[in-house]
Design a protein that fits this description.
8 helices; alpha+beta; six-stranded mixed beta sheet; single chain; elongated; two-stranded antiparallel sheet
Amino acid sequence: MTIRAARVARTPDQQATEVERVIALSRRDASLIRCDGTHVELREYRDGQSESGWRCASLPEPGDLLLSTIGSGKARMIISLCLVENVTAEGTALWNWATDVSILPALSWNAVVSDHESGRAWSAVSGRDKERVQESLVSELRAQSDLSVEEGQRQIRNCRNRSRLNRQKMLDRSDGRCQACGLDLRELFGARGDRGLDVHHVVPLCKRGDGVVRTRMADLIVLCAVCHRLLHADPDLSLDRLKAGWRSSL
């Protein structure tokens, strides 16, 4: 593998133009193939380090396009598009620096491929399906250039009360430490650190029926705000998988 310079940030419009250029260089009958990596491999890719381990979901051919992603389910993100220059006897796809487009910030997989089979994680697409995904990719990149949106409308939400007593008990039981990443906010900020911790219901209250329900300590975990958001962002993400994700990043 070749060690390259770190990726230079481009504007969304520049990325969209580069994506269109790479698409135009692909074979007329080319396939668009998903290529999966980890967060560690993504950092290596963006830093220009030697890369290894990215997995093609289907066997590519020269002239095909690779759509590289990280994550899974609703958390899957698109991080690059490249043109396959050659394929080794072992099935490893080779590409050229000049036909590789790093997409930063990453795009939501669901936002780009939602029109294709409900956005599920397909292995490869071709023909009109491929064209639709490519058009959507360019459109999403262009959309990032205009961040002007209306906001500030008042909303009325139907919220359910949480027990303050349960919250305090759980914070004291965890001693101010996130049960996923292990961040000790009390050690860093004293009693004020509790403000950065959330008490999370393992089974959401909305799934436990209407009205008042009884909650035990075993039904709750303490999470920092980051881990709490990550769990809610991906329904398929368990506490164990979240812990493993933090361990793999160390």
